[in-house]
Amino acid sequence: DPNGVRIYQHLRERRTDLRWFVPSFWRQLVESRGQRGAWPDDLELGEAPPLVRELARRGLWLEQEPLVVDPRTLVDLEHIV
Question: Average pLDDT, stretch 3-28?
Answer without folding.
Answer: 93
